[in-house]
Amino acid sequence: QAFAEVPLPRLAPERGTILAGLSAQRMVDLPVLTPREAIRREATVDVSLAVAQLYEGRGFEPIWTERRAKALRSRLADADLDGFDPADYAVQRGDLSDAAFDLALTEAALRYAHHAMSGRVVPRSISPIMTIDPPQLDELRFLRRLARSRDVAAVLDELHPQHPQFQALRGKLAQALDRGEDQRVPVGAGKSLRRGSKGPRIAALRSRLNATVRRGTDPTRFDERLDRAVRAFQTEHGLRADGIVGPRTISVLDNGVGEDPSAEIISNMERWRWLPRELGDRHVVVNVPAYRVRVAKHGGTAYEGRVIVGKPGNPTPIFSDEIEHIVVNPYWNVPFSIASKEMLGGIQKNPAGYFSRRGYEVVHRGRVVSPSSISWNRGTLRNVRIRQRPGRGNALGAVKFMFPNKHAVYLHDTPTKHLFKRARRAYSHGCVRVDQPFEFADALLEGEADLSGGKLKGLVGRGNRHLKLDAHIPVHLTYFTREVAADGSLVQFADVYGYDRRTRRALGL
């Protein structure tokens, strides 16, 4: 990207010089350039278009007084706290002329601004189904504001996402850089721990969960207070909340312990920069690695629940859109990929029986036809549509929440409720299955005049219905492996698709 390259300023003499080869008697003094004239000349050589326009609009007046230059360089020197390398924005005075130094500072500020606003990695380079478009910097508007502001640092800080999670991760990064290493003690492998257990690993477990003991009690004994803390941790991380600290709970507890957590924090901060700066006063967020959906309203949480997401071979896409309508008693139109890979063999053996047992039907040229009337092969699948009729066994359950998109994914109910009990819930072909669709709908539809979860539930079994929303609701399918919990702890989720690893590699971490 063009903004990633800071032009090297040309060394421009601003005072009289001696022409090479002339004797002292034949010295010729060049005209002395005013600051504006020097900047005008520098602005014609290897500078960004927006920078050239900025200085031209100012009559080539210098921007950086000594005080303002010091403030800018000081803020850029702290770029590591933003997850950046300060060396990328360093400008050394050295032998630069005053004019060249002024423009170099402006170019450095512009490059930092692009990184703060949009991140340093193109989302589609991580995965082609990361079709999210990061916010883009209005270069000239930013530069004009920077040039007239008395608080340079504040102008730069406002470019970063102001979302509470981003700012919380930023705070965790500062702690990690200040500490220099992870001081947490691992619980370690061994026998499963539960209420009544004793031993040194219990003390480590207490420390990890901030589960204090009452005065005079044994810190190496697994008591009721520690049991509550373990269950809360398991619930928060999508584990079975049974209070037993077995291999899976220990794996989550000890994940990354003893390692520098800053790389993972930085990669998650990068992905926050890709999201819209305004998520919507009321919006939906699905965090794929956490297997959770959240309905946010007025800065708070109106609903949070479990979801099933795409398996690694059929990952859920990452993008933002708007929920426009809801379908009750939906048909499931089977995608070609599923029909050809998973269904064709069974259909060929017994078309009528296969369709009858599963509640499927064939649509050809807008009409439902008998599956036995068709010669089934891969070519046939492209000329017909297989759909599953509404009903108890329908793969989409009783309701689906639609935000039309090129990936053909959406949120929906499911008849396979038992899968929600599992800690890792990547089983779908890309769509997001919601555990409690009608409770989700109640939070989602608050404010809609004629719609609610209760009304949707009352329509179940009464025919296919399409219900438009009065106001579209933003929905964000996201990928965050690190979150900061309400108690300030850093929560970790498995990198189910490997996107976190790819982001770190792209950032050079």
- Summarize the main sheet: 8 strands, mixed, barrel
Q: How far do the termini sit from each other? A: 20 Å
Query: Which stretches are poorly predicted, pLDDT < 50 over at least 5 residues?
Result: 1-27
- What is the beta-strand fraction? 15-25%
- The mean pLDDT is 89
Side by side, the strands of the main sheet go 1-2-3-12-10-9-4-13
Radius of gyration: 30 Å
- The helix tally amounts to 18
SS class: alpha+beta
- Name the shape in a single word: globular
Helix content: 25-40%
- Number of E-state strands: 15
Task: Identify the notable features of this structure and list them briefly.
509 residues; alpha+beta; eight-stranded mixed barrel; four-stranded antiparallel β-sheet; 35% helix; 16% strand; globular; disordered N terminus
Account of the 3D structure:
The protein is of the alpha+beta class and about 500 residues long. It is about 35% helix and about 15% strand. It has helices at about 35-40, 50-55, 65-75, 100-120, 125, 140-150, 150-155, 165-180, 200-210, 225-235, 245-255, 260-275, 335-350, 350-360, 380, 435-445, 455-460, 500-505; strands at about 280-285, 290-295, 300-310, 320-330, 330-335, 360-365, 365-370, 385-390, 400, 410, 425-430, 430-435, 465-480, 480-485, 490. An 8-stranded mixed barrel has the order 1-2-3-12-10-9-4-13. A hairpin with a 2-residue loop joins strand 6 (about 360-365) and strand 7. Helix 1 (about 35-40) packs across helix 4 and helix 12 (about 260-275) crosses helix 18 (about 500-505). The longest helix is centred in the first third of the chain and has 21 residues, at about 100-120. The two termini are about 20 Å apart.
